[in-house]
Design a protein that fits this description.
about 350 residues, Serine Threonine Protein Phosphatase 5, Tetratricopeptide repeat
Length: about 350
């Protein structure tokens, strides 16, 4: 049975144009059987540029399409900071903002305030499930949550949402959690899935993560091969160029592990001089690698200076910061500075109590 059309407004009444628009919208709603497609207020926040509001018409692991005033706009998922769905709780929207900024502790505090029973709609419920586990996973990588629990939650989410727009970031977290848990075969599967991404920045980053996992297993030849592939890839955008620099750091650490400390130190110093020091993650990795090489050469004071760079200047990456604090606690003791050694150890156990470095 066809829907009954609403009566047209009288043309001699005030507000005719507004009333006519209301009529057209209502007619479209009746014909489609859905008001959400017309009145939805979904929002997309890209990593670069301004946010947009409209109605999301397509969403998947590779792209999100949003209709803005009748015009579709397409966003690649690796370029997204967050997606906010119409009708989701404001607290969940706040959680997403905090997570996008890497404020994991605050994000976890906020998400605990949400009663799952109060969240309605498939999209909002799925988002709550994802962010609960993803936030836990990122905290686990810093030693402040259970990695097994986080991995289990993420796997459950992706089992139910195979083509999620969170696929790339969530799979990366799963790979890092698997590495942390020593499940390197599983980590290789996750990083391998990322390597198949149609986006160079995602594929290249997966190679760096895989190389790190291989390095932690002392598989130096395999790590070198993966890094060489990453470095040889044509790259022009900042994200891929950055991944290539991180791959070079892994190569330097392979050299250090194989006793080629002079070569490693030369390459690391060149990278420190040539790169932008505002990239704190890269520079923390560079100075930690430099500290490792200097320790191999038993240059304790110079090694301390290298790790102090990571501690005092580039401390916003938990993994590299915890590593630097561990080595500082050891090196200060070698230099006859027990109080400084104790301070570094206390800082490590306070900030990253559950990390592998704090447990050494």
């Amino acid at each position: 049975m066809s829907p009954t059309a609403a009566p047209l407004p009288s043309l001699d009444l005030p507000g005719t144009i507004f009333a006519l628009r209301q009529h057209l919208a209502l007619t479209a709603m009746l014909l489609t059987g859905s008001a959400s497609a017309i009145f939805a207020d979904d929002r997309i926040y890209p990593k670069q540029g301004s946010s947009v509001s409209g109605s999301i018409t397509e969403i998947g692991r590779d792209k999100v399409v949003i209709e803005v005033r009748g015009t579709p706009q397409t966003f690649e998922t690796p370029a997204l900071a967050r997606v906010v769905f119409d009708g989701e709780p404001s607290t969940l929207s706040r959680v997403k903002e905090l997570a996008a900024n890497g404020q994991w502790d605050q994000a976890q505090e906020e998400i605990k305030k949400i009663d799952p029973e109060s969240v309605t709609g498939d999209a909002a419920q799925a988002e709550l499930a994802y962010y609960s586990s993803w936030i836990e996973g990122n905290l686990a990588l810093t030693g402040r949550a259970d990695p097994g629990s986080a991995a289990k939650g993420l796997l459950a989410y992706f089992t139910a949402n195979k083509d999620s727009h969170h696929f790339y970031e969530g799979t990366e977290t799963l790979g890092e959690l698997a590495t942390l848990l020593g499940n390197y075969d599983r980590a290789s599967v996750y990083f391998g899935a990322l390597a198949k991404a149609p986006y160079p920045q995602v594929a290249l980053r997966s190679k760096v993560l895989e190389a790190r996992a291989l390095l932690s297993q002392q598989k130096f030849a395999e790590a070198r091969t993966v890094c060489s592939e990453a470095i040889a890839t044509a790259a022009t955008d900042p994200a891929t160029l950055r991944s290539q620099q991180l791959a070079k750091v892994v190569l330097a650490r392979c050299d250090i592990s194989e006793g080629k400390t002079a070569d490693a130190l030369q390459n690391l110093q060149k990278m420190i001089q040539e790169n932008d020091s505002t990239d704190s993650q890269l520079f923390a990795a560079l100075y930690n690698a430099q500290g490792e090489a200097l320790q191999k050469e038993q240059k304790w004071e110079q090694a301390v200076l290298a790790y102090l760079h990571s501690d005092l200047l580039f401390s916003n990456n938990p993994e590299t910061h915890a590593e630097a604090l561990y080595h500082l606690s050891q090196l200060w003791a070698k230099l006859g500075e027990p109080q400084r050694a104790a301070e570094a150890k206390e800082k490590l156990t306070t900030l990253y109590a559950g990390s592998a470095w704090a447990k050494k």
